[in-house]
Design goal:
The structure holds two protein chains of two kinds.
Chain A lengths: L1 E14 L2 E14 L3 E5 L6 H8 L7 E6 L2 E2 L5 H11 E4 L11 H9 L8 H7 L15 H14 L4 E5 L7 H16 L4 E6 L10 E6 L2 E7 L12
Parallel strand pairs in A: 3-8, 3-9, 6-7, 7-8
Antiparallel strand pairs in A: 1-2, 1-4, 4-5, 9-10
Helix pairs in contact in A: 3-5, 4-5, 5-6
Chain B lengths: L2 H12 L1 H38 L5 E9 L1 H7 L5 E6 L1 E6 L4 E8 L9 E5 L7 E5 H5 L8 E3 L10 E9 L19 E8 L8 E8 L10 H33 L1 H19 L5 H24 L4 E5 L6 H40 L1 H9 L4 H40 L12 H27 L3 H5 L11 H4 L1 H6 L2 H12 L1 H39 L4 E5 L5 H8 L4 E16 L2 E11 L2 H4 L21 E4 H7 L6 E6 L4 E10 L5 E4 L2 H8 L7 E6 L4 H14 L2 E6 H14 L1 H29 L1 H9 L4 H38 L12 H27 L3 H6 L3
Parallel strand pairs in B: 4-9, 6-8, 14-18, 15-17
Antiparallel strand pairs in B: 1-10, 1-11, 2-10, 3-4, 5-8, 6-9, 7-8, 12-19, 12-20, 13-14, 13-16, 13-19, 15-18, 16-17
Helix pairs in contact in B: 1-10, 2-8, 2-10, 2-11, 2-23, 6-7, 8-11, 8-16, 8-23, 8-25, 10-11, 15-25, 16-22, 16-23, 16-25, 16-26, 17-21, 23-26, 25-26
Classes of the chains: A alpha/beta, B alpha+beta.
The structure holds adenosine-5'-diphosphate and magnesium ion.
Adenosine-5'-diphosphate binds next to strand 1, strand 2 and helix 1 of chain A.
GO molecular function, one term (chain A): transmembrane transporter activity
Family (chain A): Belongs to the ABC transporter superfamily.
Organism (chain A): Paucilactobacillus suebicus DSM 5007 = KCTC 3549
């Protein structure tokens, strides 16, 4: 069943005289509980569509139906509400609050939703049970990204959106992070979307959507995804 | 243009808000500094200009026997003196038999020139000009007739008012001095052509020294020079006085000399005849004694005594100088505060600016620009902002504040406004402003330029967060909710911003409180003195020591409540080598009754004091000036030359004037003579102005009194003093408010841009707009609350400090800040916090979170 339906979605930026088309009539679907990878080179329009899916931005045209509702026409307030309860975000640069401890960074997210998970437990799950009282500056990049994932998961969202989560990480730590995201889909049955420009990662996905030059170029389903553990790049 | 210069201008255009903020803050600092500093001198300059232009005399001499041409010549024997004799007399006239100071007008006089407010000077013998106060306070109009009482001894009874004038002899419109006619207090002055006054000789001699006019009339050097001149004048008038007495005596006693000659001849004849008729001898004797009494009478009437006056004795003259000093005292405190805050704000703003341009600086460095070339970019930015701020601030401040204050004074004072541009202040402010802007920029750029280009192009490694002290207090920390924890952690992380915000808010609160405090405290000295301390409403000076007539008149008055008789004297007190003049010495005829008229309350323990069999009670200010404590001995000399010493048995709370209280027996012991009743203290229920004048008139006519003064009038003088400051205070309140607002706004802006990534993150997490705003504003609220509370404390301290600076030697200003001050200060700060919150809310609502989170900066 399609959890996400993007139909003819376009996003244009007006830069003075010229118009930049970041997304040009994109259409694709992603299923509930699946792990979907969006693949494409830099500047293709991946982040743009992910931000729209996450309610951080609205499309210029088209429909973005999530769990049966079109969020394209949402007001700012509705978008905020949507982000609050339904979405977990993971960025390339972890965007942790430097002045809050690991635990507090997670609590920051869990404190605003009613059915949040226990912050300490989520942190234990991502393997940071012994770093609860550390500040971000005291953690490595991989650890910081794991805190960011814990923060996204703690809200117990339906949809986990990850924009180049391993972009700033080395091979090993990148793998650990991807495993966590994989688990979120496989074990917790969250719908997970991961953006990457690393085509090797296509193997881990249930579905791969290739975007280039603002357009969807191909959509492939992968009946037998390879676990991250076994992927080499 | 070189690329770097281009970059500078683009930078200014790009961060207009910040640029303007620096200009604004520097401008405010300079404006208050220059403005307030210039106001005191401007006031004094204006008084000086006025008295020089209108040729105010330096010394005035009054004589019991009048002045002739001979006296003018005598006075002019003193080097540099120019003397003019004028007719002058206190008379009664007008609607309610007002006491009027009447001068004989001579068009050729050069001293104490009148300046016309309206109409013209007298052109014929039926015309008169009146004090402008007669128009403003007693509503006389041009063309109206004014009638004088017979006792005025004028050629006509009525004169037509043809002009209203100001005189340099009366610089302060709140008072005109006191007189022995009418109700005892002079209402206004007037000038009729001199020939209209039936006086055998001029009664007033004005003396002016043109050489002294270049000195500031309030300066020490002027006062010293004048007292030297008075000394010389006294010397020449010593012999002149005796001479004048003798001439007059001889003239008046002409007939008596003839009778004496006859009498002596008769005596001689009788003796020559060898007749010793008892009857004849007795007759001769009685005639001789009659003659002697007549002679003595004439001698007394022709005895010449002089009264000496200098400018400082003119009504209101000294007080005006003191209010200039008071403004100057304020000037020492307020602007310093402003500059301090301005410096800190500039520092943070430029720090932030340079921080944001790290990558740019790195690029320039990598391109091979020298450190100096890059630094110049930022230094110029700071320099331009600082200069623009200083120039605008100095000109606006120098023009606006003194003019405003002067124009207020001009409503009641005949001032010629002088507002020089104070170049020295301008230079000082430029120096300070440049230190705060360019200096701040230099410090920041210096530390930044030390880093290598590659380091600069990378984002600054985040300041490592630390646990705050509060976290270690586990029970407290655990009880806080998540938001509170976050706010506290943030507050302590950005310590400098925390301190600056508190400083800005506390400073504004304190300055506003101080503005109110100065006014309240000055007012309080009068209101407390004349309600708590002096419970009487009137002081009636008796002609003799018999009060029965006066009491009779008082008892007929509806408002009369009670009276007590005292011996009131004036004198000076000295101790430990210090001396205080103009002491009121009160010896009540009944110790017990005094309690109902004067509250004697110990400054040490707040207990009521009573008068002892020996020893005296002194008022607070005098005791502190003499540096005496209870048990010390003081020496007193009264104006009628009684002297004596006594122990201090108590020091009593008192706000206005100097008082010494002692019992009848203590008086006897101290001066070796009995105290004599000469004054009544009178309690009255509330009277209106008319009732007061009527009672004073009645007492003068039928009560055998010399005059009546009311405490309301004294309180009025103090009220005027405090209200004359009210505009200055209002200006301060406004400026302080603006300052606090700019500080809060600017710091919040910096805070938001520093933490835009953090704020975008929580937006992405799904915080509602309100929550996002509160995330940052919560800190402002805490800081505002702390700032306001700190401000209360600082405000009280600042008020106390300024009051001490501004205190005159006669008055104690009790530190008083009414709740209105607290409410206004608090309300303004809360208002600012709310405005800043709303502005921040708008800004955060429109923050592009995607953009903010995109790159790794
Ligand atoms: N806020 C914006 N304003 C203008 N152009 C933008 C904006 N955001 C993205 N773009 C442009 O849209 C295109 C797609 O960008 P993006 O979605 O970030 O690509 P990517 O696939 O690398 O994530 C790029 O050409 C980018 O320059
Ligand atoms: Mg991208």
């Amino acid at each position: 069943m399609a959890y996400i339906e993007v139909i003819n979605e376009s996003k244009r930026y007006q830069m003075g005289e010229t118009t930049i088309v970041a997304n040009d009539k994109l259409s694709f679907e992603a299923n509930q509980g699946d792990l979907t990878v969006i693949l494409g080179p830099s500047g293709a329009g991946k982040s743009t569509v992910l931000n729209i899916l996450g309610g951080m931005d609205s499309p210029s045209d088209g429909e973005v139906i999530i769990d049966g509702t079109d969020i394209a026409k949402y007001s700012d307030k509705q978008l905020t509400q949507f982000r609050r309860t339904d979405i977990g975000f993971v960025f390339q640069f972890y965007n942790l609050i430097p002045n809050l401890t690991t635990r507090e960074n997670v609590e920051l997210a869990s404190s605003i939703v009613p059915d949040a998970l226990d912050a300490d437990q989520v942190l234990k799950d991502v393997g940071l049970g012994d770093r609860l009282d550390n500040f971000p500056s005291q953690l490595s990049g991989g650890e910081q990204q794991r805190v960011a994932i814990a923060r996204a998961l703690a809200k117990n969202p339906k949809l986990l959106l990850c924009d180049e989560p391993t972009g700033a990480l080395d091979y090993e730590t990148g793998k650990q992070v991807l495993t966590l995201l994989e688990d979120a889909s496989r074990k917790d049955h969250k719908t997970v979307l991961i953006i990457t420009h690393n085509s090797a990662l296509a193997k881990m996905a249930d579905r791969v959507i290739r975007i280039n030059d603002a357009k969807v170029r191909s959509i492939e389903d992968n009946p037998n995804p390879t676990p991250v553990e076994e992927i080499e790049w | 243009m070189k690329p770097l210069t281009k970059n500078l201008w683009r930078g200014i255009r790009g961060s207009m808000g910040r640029f303007i903020a620096i200009i604004l803050i520097i401008m405010l600092g300079v404006l208050t500094y220059v403005g307030v500093k210039a106001t005191g001198p401007a006031l004094k300059d204006s008084v000086n200009q006025t008295v020089t232009n209108l040729h105010l005399s330096d010394v005035q001499i009054m004589s019991t026997t009048g002045f002739t041409k001979q006296d003018v010549k005598t006075a002019e024997k003193v080097a540099g003196a120019k003397a003019e004799a004028v007719k002058f007399k206190y008379v009664t006239g007008g609607k309610d038999s007002y006491a009027i100071a009447l001068y004989g007008y001579q068009h050729n006089l050069t001293e104490n020139k009148l300046s016309l407010r309206s109409g013209h000077l007298p052109k014929n013998n039926h015309q008169i000009v009146l004090d402008y106060r007669a128009h403003s306070k007693y509503s006389y109009k041009l063309g109206q007739k004014i009638k004088f009482d017979k006792s005025a001894e004028l050629k006509h009874r009525t004169y037509t008012v043809v002009g209203f004038v100001d005189s340099p002899s009366y610089v302060d419109n709140t008072e005109r001095g006191s007189a022995n006619v009418g109700d005892g207090s002079v209402k206004f002055f007037a000038e009729v052509p001199a020939s209209q006054m039936n006086l055998s000789a001029a009664t007033l001699l004005n003396v002016r020294f043109s050489k002294l006019q270049s000195r500031d009339t309030y300066s020490h050097s002027y006062k010293e020079a004048v007292s030297a001149k008075v000394k010389s004048l006294k010397k020449v008038f010593k012999t002149r006085g005796a001479e004048r007495s003798k001439t007059l005596y001889n003239k008046n006693a002409g007939e008596l000399t003839a009778s004496q000659d006859k009498l002596t001849a008769a005596k001689n004849q009788l003796m020559a005849m060898g007749m010793t008729s008892k009857q004849a001898t007795a007759q001769l004797k009685s005639e001789q004694s009659q003659l002697d009494t007549a002679k003595a009478k004439i001698k007394k009437a022709t005895k010449t005594t002089y009264t000496w006056q200098t400018r400082s004795d003119l009504p209101g003259f000294t007080a005006l100088g003191q209010s200039a000093d008071r403004i100057a005292a304020i000037a020492n405190v307020f602007p310093v505060f402003f500059f301090l805050v301005a410096a800190l704000i500039t520092f943070t703003t430029i720090t932030r600016m340079v921080e944001e341009a790290r990558a740019q600086i790195g690029t320039f460095k990598a391109l091979g620009y020298s450190k100096m070339a890059i630094a110049r970019n930022y230094l110029s930015y700071a320099f331009i902002a600082g200069m623009i701020g200083t120039i605008i601030g100095a000109f606006v401040g120098n023009i606006s504040l003194p003019r405003l204050v002067l124009s207020l004074y001009q409503n009641c004072i005949p001032l010629i406004a002088v507002d020089k541009f104070q170049w020295s202040l301008f230079v000082i402010s430029i120096i300070i402003a440049l230190i705060t802007t360019v200096g701040a920029a230099a410090i920041v750029v210096r530390s930044e330029l030390k880093e290598k280009p590659s380091e600069l192009m990378r984002p600054r490694s985040p300041k490592s967060a630390k646990r705050i002290l509060m976290e270690r207090i586990k029970p407290l920390w655990r009880r806080m909710n998540f938001n509170q924890k976050v706010s506290y952690r943030n507050l302590f992380r950005y310590k400098s911003r925390m301190f600056m915000t508190i400083l800005g808010i506390a400073g504004g609160t304190a300055l506003i409180l101080t503005g109110f405090g100065i006014q309240n405290s000055i007012g309080a000295s009068g209101s407390r003195q004349y309600s708590e301390i002096a419970k009487y409403q009137a002081v009636v000076r008796l002609n003799g020591s018999n009060s029965s007539q006066a009491v009779k008149v008082l008892k007929q008055d509806k408002q009369y409540k009670s009276q007590t008789a005292i011996d009131a004297n004036v004198g000076n007190v000295s101790a430990h080598g210090h001396k205080v003049d103009d002491i009121n010495i009160y010896a009540p005829s009944s110790k017990n009754q005094l309690k109902n008229f004067v509250k004697l309350i110990s400054t040490d323990n707040g207990k009521n004091l009573s008068l002892k069999k020996s020893g005296v009670v002194l008022s607070e200010k005098m005791a502190s000036q003499l540096k005496v404590k209870v048990g010390d001995t003081i020496r007193v000399k009264t104006t009628d030359n009684h002297t004596g010493t006594a122990k201090v048995t108590g020091i009593t709370e008192n706000f206005v004037g100097h008082y010494m209280y002692l019992s009848q027996s203590a008086y006897q012991k101290m001066f070796g003579t009995r105290a004599k009743t000469n004054t009544l203290l009178v309690r009255l229920s509330h009277q209106n102005q008319h009732q007061r004048e009527k009672l004073a008139n009645q007492l003068m006519k039928h009560g055998d009194t010399m005059g009546t003064s009311y405490t309301v009038d004294q309180q009025q003088t103090i009220t005027t003093m405090s209200s004359s400051l009210s505009t200055v205070v209002l200006i301060f309140i406004l400026l302080s408010g603006v300052l606090s607002f700019v500080v809060l706004y600017n710091l919040t802006n910096i805070n938001v841009s520093e933490r835009i990534r953090e704020l975008s993150t929580i937006k992405v997490l799904g915080f509602y707009d309100k929550e996002v705003t509160m995330y940052i504003v919560r800190e402002n609220i805490m800081l505002t609350v702390i700032g306001i509370i700190v401000g209360y404390g600082v405000g009280n301290a600042l008020t106390a400090y300024i009051l001490r600076q501004a205190a005159t030697d006669q008055i104690i200003f009790p530190l008083t800040i009414h709740w209105v001050g607290y409410v206004v200060a608090t309300a303004l700060m809360v208002l600012f916090t709310v405005i800043v919150m709303l502005v921040t809310h708008r800004r955060l609502k429109h923050v592009d979170m995607v953009e903010a989170l995109k790159s790794n900066e």
